[in-house]
Design goal:
Elements (H helix, E strand, L loop, with lengths): L8 E2 L1 H4 L17 E2 L8 E4 L2 E6 L14 E4 L2 E4 L7 E4 L2 E5 L2 E4 L5 H5 L7 E4 L3 E5 L2 E4 L7 E4 L4 E5 L2 E4 L7 E4 L2 E12 L7 E3 L4 E12 L7 E3 L2 E5 L2 E4 L5 E4 L3 E5 L2 E4 L13 E6 L11 E6 L2 E4 L3 E6 L1 E8 L2 E4 L7 E3 L12 E8 L2 E3 L2 E3 L4 E7 L3 E3 L10 E6 L4 E3 L4 E3 L1 E3 L5 E2 L5 E3 L2 E2 L20 E2 L6 E2 L77
Parallel strand pairs: 5-8, 6-9, 7-10, 8-11, 9-12, 10-13, 11-14, 12-15, 13-16, 14-17, 15-17, 16-18, 17-19, 18-20, 19-21, 19-22, 20-23, 21-24, 22-25, 23-26, 24-27, 25-28, 26-29, 27-30, 28-31, 29-32, 30-33, 32-35, 33-36, 34-37, 36-38, 37-39, 38-41, 39-42, 40-43
Antiparallel strand pairs: 1-2, 3-6, 4-5, 43-44, 45-46
Amino acid sequence: MKKKLWLTIVLGAAVGLSACGSAGSSDGKNGSVVSQEKNSENQELERGSVSDSAVSSGDSAFGKTASGQAVSGETIKNSTDGGHAIEVDGKTESYEDVKVVKTGNSEGDDADFYGENSAVFATNGAVLNLTNIQVDSDGAHANAVFSYGKKTTVNISNSQINTSNNCSGGLMTTGGGTMNADNLVIYTKGNSSAAIRSDRGGGTVKVTKGSYTTDGTGSPVIYSTADITVSNATLTSTASQGVVVEGKNSVQLKDVTLTADNNKKNSDKSKYYQAVMIYQSMSGDAAQGAATFGMEGGTLINKNGDIFFVNNTVATITLKNAQITNKDSKGIFLRAAAAGWGSEGSNGGNVTVKASKQTIKGDIVVDDVSTLNLYLADSSKFKGAVNSDGKAGSVYVELKGNSTWTLTADSYITSLTCAKKSINLNGHTLYVNGKKYKAGTKSSGKAVEAKSGSSGKADSKTGSKTDSNSSDKKTGERKAGNGRPSGKPGSRPGSQSGNSGDKSGSGNRGNRNHTDGKGHHNGKPSGTPPAKPEGEKDYGNGS
């Protein structure tokens, strides 16, 4: 077990001590002396002050006084490989007006799944409140603020985070933890370093307001293996996707400004660039099943490639009154297609798009192992072509509530529901199940079903899929049947052995075997984690 830095709280009134001058004096009630200490692991605390911001717990512990007051004005440093500047294990603690500086390196599962080497770390049902703090991380695999495990909650507000090395995200949530963030400024410079990040076991992340920027390759602003909601924020990526959703997880955006410039590749698994990618890597980090992406209001500006790319999974994309602009004249609106993840021949994208009061501009491509159900409602407008080259996957288009489709090229779909005035052929031909559509004709069709073999199990009514055997996104516990099949596209070489057990709640940071405190193995994967090529992480190339 690694040593920790403890603040020794000396209660003057309790032991009959008199005031000792202006520095560290006691007021005889709840004013307390906070000692300064530097431990053998190069963790240093510079003296500050104790604020009057009370927290719910009155425990005497690192992070607050015996009366439950928050520590403020401190500079807390850690330079140990694998260590933390702040670690809260199963307690309630609060910090405000503190600066956290983290150096020191780690690698692989311990850092990305379990929080090793993060600057600020909460686990085992801890509640950690952070207000007006600054976190500077310069280590490899040194995430800034990490919430790990069920019932663990981190609340952070009005704070700034900077990470400069690879695999070092801003906010990180795994194992079913909870992260609540308000009005942050986050900037990450390294590769595979999402500003808002999650990994195995997922959790719940809620972000409001603030600015979130990434500069590295494989560093989207948001990488989701969790349920992530972001509202009234500015999101900017300068090299990677704006958002990546993996597996049975979600991202919901409301009134955000998202600007994506995906201009660098993190692998050779796909030749496409995009603002939003939804996929299943088959790495075991995300449960198999239907992914969801939603955007209401706000703006999405894409500078390179396509807007949406869906591969090797079932996905629902919900859009309502969002302003979406593609500045790449060669890019398209949606591409559902096979790539390097999953099994060849059954690794397409199976997509349902639901648009309300939405304008969509750009073409749609659905390859022969993919499907699309496009629902346009509430006066939505679509201007573009579907599978203009005639190489059609299964596509259903439904237009209701005065919605319209204006073709920009010949289009090929499988089924159509529309009113007489819904379709503007604009001089082009629309083929429905191989037959030419006659302008001004009412049509009634039905949705197509997802192709078999993609992640999850098809729902008979919507064409979406429900969960199949997989790793549990809430706990990280491995279930039967979710292993990484060797020899199949998308599997990771050197895959884990499939050990099972609940990873939430270990909290034993010094024990690299991650036992539960009783000597039982708690499911930490064995072996070296190889690359998840296209999304946010890429262990294999050192990023």
